[in-house]
Amino acid sequence: MAIVTRRVDYQDQGVALRGRVYFDDSLGPRPAVLVSHAWGGRNSFSNGQAEKLAKLGYVGFALDMYGAGVSGETVQECSALMTPLMEDRTMLARRIKLAVATVQALPEVDAARIAAIGFCFGGLCVLDLARSGAEVRGVVSFHGLLKGNGLPAKKITAKALVLHGDADPLAPFEDVIAFRDEFNVAGNDWQLHAYGKTLHAFSTPGANMPAMGIVHNARAEARSMKSMQDFLAEVLA
Fold it and tell me: Which residues form the domain of 85?
């Protein structure tokens, strides 16, 4: 067994995008799991999550929502990168659906067995993927933003797992209720795991901005990763 990786270039209406795929080169075509990055862009964290998925036997693909080589470090930079997509959820959905199509075309992938996970902003992205009616098996949102996209409702076929910090100020209780109502109306098979006394970015080691409600929580991280693995084993069987 050897995990190999390569760069994958693709485009959205002239915007160059650059993902990274990870897979065990001893296996034939297998299910793929996309990793949607947080507001800072594709980085070592999202790449690392894709590599961990490859070690579990999937094809892991760290997608790109911003553009090749584009990333942010400061709060201001990250916010500036995320805002255009938050304001144009049609573009957001198109871009993540393009990432799915790109992954389905990879020779290592069983194109009928696709799932996606996302962190923070990426959690919202994978929920919007489900909202779009995309034919993926399932999506997992880690401390994702939950607000609906305001677009015409479609039947949601992807199963959804939302892993949520109960004290997350970026996804308050009213957003949780709205998510529940939205996904029930859409006929979705969904789960929500809420971790008590847990803030935003609980699965991100090193996250420590208490004033913004952003704090890593190792126990919630471990629990959420186990829940993700169980969910993927179910939907990608």
Answer: 3-235
Q: What is the full DSSP assignment across 132-179?
A: TT---SEEEEES-------SPP----SEEEEEEETT-TTS-HHHHHHH
Compute the residue count for the chain: 237
In degrees and rounded to multiples of 5, residue 209 shows phi and psi of -130, 75
Give residue-wise pLDDT tens across range 74-99. Answer: 999 999 999 999 999 999 999 999 99
Alpha-carbon distance of 160 to 227, in angstroms, equals 12
CB neighbour list of residue 175: distance below 8 Å, 6 or more residues apart: 145, 146, 147
Residue 189, token pair as written in the block: 């098979």
Rounded distance between C-alpha atoms, residue 48 and residue 43, angstroms: 8
* Torsional sign, CA 189, 116, 124, 128: negative
The pLDDT value recorded for residue 188 is: 85
Q: Read out DSSP for 215-229?
A: E--HHHHHHHHHHHH
Number of structural domains in the chain: 1
pTM over 0.85: yes
For residue 166, which phi and psi values (nearest 5 degrees)?
-60, -25
Which CATH number characterizes residue 182's domain? 3.40.50.1820
